[in-house]
């Protein structure tokens, strides 16, 4: 059965009863994730962040808490959902693209914070590998790559979930030159030389 990222999908996972608490798409949980990503990026950049690229942004839920923290930052989002782009694209600076389009798509200069949250584990390997190099090239600071594996206890939307081992993603991220910081955060290739040995897990 084909998966549709339509209004019903977002209502269920981001606005319905399942999303009102601390789990799945809960607002409080999102705010903490955004704060963590912003603080980590600014720690390594040693300045406030100015730019965010959100790949697989859905309706752009990261935008509001990001702008609350840093009102002057530039937010740019891309998603494959025609519904989300038609409804929120103009107001939230969201644009239509599949992940594989990033094999060639470079919509901006490298950003301070790159977000690809809850996306990669739903992609076929061919599409994943086509778009993946963009994550390394478009990240000029820190990337938040929230990705789940077969080692994790999965709650929420399991339709189309690819049960890959953690090493599958770790090897690919490291091949891009990204360095693991923990908590789904990865340091850009350009900043790796400036970190202390114990800031990056061995």
From TrEMBL:
Keywords: Methyltransferase, Transferase. One of its GO terms (molecular function) is methyltransferase activity. One of its GO terms (biological process) is methylation. It comes from the Bacteria. Residues 53-133 form the Methyltransferase type domain. InterPro entries: Methyltransf_12 (IPR013217), SAM-dependent_MTases_sf (IPR029063). This is Class I SAM-dependent DNA methyltransferase. It comes from Lysobacter koreensis. The lineage of its organism: Bacteria, Pseudomonadati, Pseudomonadota, Gammaproteobacteria, Lysobacterales.
